[in-house]
Design brief:
Chain A: Its main location: membrane. Chain A: InterPro entries: ABC_transp_permease. Chain A: It is found in: Cell membrane. Chain A: One of its GO terms (molecular function) is transmembrane transporter activity. The complex is a heterodimer of chains A (322) and B (520). By secondary structure, chain A is an all-alpha fold. Chain A has one domain. Chain A is globular, with a radius of gyration of 20 Å. The termini of chain A are far apart. The N terminus of chain B is likely disordered. In chain B, strand 11 and strand 12 form a beta hairpin. Chain B has 520 residues and is an alpha/beta fold. Chain B contains 17 helices and 20 strands. Chain B is globular. Chain B has three domains: 155 residues, Rossmann fold; 61 residues, no CATH class; 247 residues, P-loop containing nucleotide triphosphate hydrolases (Rossmann fold). In chain B, 33% of the residues lie in helices and 25% in strands. The two termini of chain B are 45 Å apart. Classes of the chains: A mainly alpha (322), B alpha/beta (520). The interface between A and B is medium-sized, with 23 and 34 residues.
Chain lengths: 322, 520
Amino acid sequence: MDYATLIQILDSTLRLATPLLLACLAGLYSERAGIFDIGLEGKMLMAAMASGAVAAVTGSAWAGLGAGILASLLLGAVHGLASITFRGNQLISGVALNFVASGVTVLVAQSLFGQGGRTPPLSGDARFNPITLPFAEAVKDVPLIGPFYFEVLSGHSILVYAALALVPLTWWVLFRTRFGLRLRAVGENPAAVDTAGVSVKGLRWAAVAITGVLCGIAGAYMATALQAGFGKEMTAGRGYIALAALIFAKWRPVAALWACLLFGFFQALATRTDVVEGLVGMKVPVPFLDALPYILTVVVLAGFIGKAIPPRAGGEPYVKER
Amino acid sequence: MAQGVEMTGRPATAAPFAIELKGISKAFGPVQANKDINIAVPKGTIHGIIGENGAGKSTLMSILYGFYRADAGEIFIGGRLTPIPDSQSAIRAGIGMVFQHFKLVQNFTVLENVVLGAEEGALLNTSLAKARAELQRLSRDYELDVNPDALIEDLSVGHQQRVEILKALYRQADILILDEPTGVLTPDEADHLFRILKGLRDQGKTVILITHKLREIMEATDNVSVMRRGTMVGTVKTAETSPEALAELMVGRKVLLEVEKKPATPGAVVLDVQNLRVVDEHKVERLKGVSLQIRAGEILGIAGVAGNGQSELLAALGGITKATGAVTLKGEALPLTGKGANGRARREAGIGHIPEDRQALGLIMDFAAWENMAFGYHHRPQYGAGAVLMDNAAVRAETDKQMAAYDVRPPIASLAAKSFSGGNQQKIVVAREIESGPDLLLIGQPTRGVDIGAIEFIHKQIVALRDAGKAILLVSVELDEIMSLSDRILVMFDGQVMGERDPEITNERELGLLMAGMTG
């Protein structure tokens, strides 16, 4: 594999890792607060459809983004209602919402546009277009670093940079702010938060809302930046891979970035089977590459790479008791 | 009525009251947990609230801390009417609560736990710095040493409790409520706690100590209020009462704190343990070569501070953990490793087991009483209608019989185990294990979390089993219980037997030294 090929693959790695990263950070807020959210996938899908549709109608990617966030928040609110207010089973709620999203997206897209469950192709301002970073042109010809900066780092949509910026921001919020302390506490021992006079439900609702916003951005990125419009099941399991990355990263924001980049790298490799074949000297089936994130996650869960301890109160509705 | 009891619920003190509750009532469905409670706690005192489990002590304190809302009644703090709809209001009113089960975040530092909910601003750094300075001051003033940067999960329970107290003091609590604070502590830790509480009182704080242990009331409190079945029976000065008088108030009748039993008539050796060793999952040796014998018709008590190998001894003999050494039961060697070493094989061999943690090992909390009554013995022919099916009618009939015989309340076989009080749960376990007719009964903490009435009953059953010629191994952290029940006492320390004592001759001091590892 030559340097140009590597650059190409890294470029698509970043592109493909972005929705994973957004969804992974979304899941991180929720799970750190003790609400398991298997419905990341459904929220992304709903957001992708909503943003694709609104962007197609209005011609504005930003309007699409807003619609995507709203749609995702709506699903998140149902999840919150089921798991926080009514203390239902979080896994069942998440799975159910995934099914709802899978059906509703195609239904709505078909009835609006009649194009086989797709939204119309987007172009121009209806998409988030690539941004050239400062000095990209100038350093383009510097050996090694130049192509890396120009090809890999520069030339992505604003959402990619937003996702990257969210990593340190999330770290700072979690570990340097009062909100973060309480958020982590409520995922570990909600009774401690409750007896300290802080609302458990309020914190969990806040976390679910943040998850909704981030999943909304992830879905909008899928339909208005990575691709040009919504297509049936276009998230293709990214919500689950993001969950896998979250476990792989042991619920830590910076590690989540690396996990998502790694899993994005696998996805990029899956599109370049010729390169993989050249590297390992034999034909590797694409499904195997697709499965790698899950295999790695199982390895982590089995305790081969340190121990992945989820937030202790995760998945359990909080019932007041002494 | 015992002497020195005033029925007004008000001790004879002229000082203003830190807390005054008037006419507090609270019902959970049909259960009246608190009925028209009146109590007044003078400022700067340690006030005990004592009562059996289920007497309504914890409910009352939860109302005071805003965890529950009272159906009726008024709360006065420092003389002012103060409604407490939630914990936030309680904290604002200067009330701090140390719950029986600590409310700490395990993977947070001490500092983070103290600050949680009482932060200074949106950013943490200033809060943490302020709390660090404040903690230093508090730990100096009140003997409350803890490392502010230690993770809670690395601390002993005694230290975790100090963190809870620090949390309350950091919130400037003037009134500190402790719910059964010594249940998890070693005697040393408990003594330290009482020193801390007295220090707090001397600084003008008011302390409310909820407990069902008479000894602690006598040792640590200035006044004591007694609750029984949801009502306040009376308030007395501790100096003017006695454990017997309090016990009588608690249960409403005379209680035998001493167990009545005839001298033992030991028969043949039933259990012979030689050089028993247990190594735990962290490769730490928990039992370091324990040898002991128990004869038919005697109770061997194992005294010791929790965590010195008693649990491992019970688990190894009960077939729950693997061990090395030699164990014979009525002359038959028992396998200590491999397939033959499991709970069922031990029960078949004639060893009954009342485990220390009845909620984890003794019962399935979500299952009905009648199902629990058969566990461990469910394969016995008396419960089997065939090779596959169970004869549920037979189990239910047996349960009804045992519930009557062991006075399990309420006697409803279909009620889930978790719906019974601690004492009645324990009676179910005791009934099951005794009625299965063991030659040797292993008993761990038979009366932990059990109210006085049930303690008396369970003790009688244990003595009756001994008099029926069975061998009994009794493990308890309650020294009173060991001393009054046992025919011989072994003291364990650090996985070893420190020595044997005769309960008629020894005293708590001597046993205490042995429990601390000093052979003298």
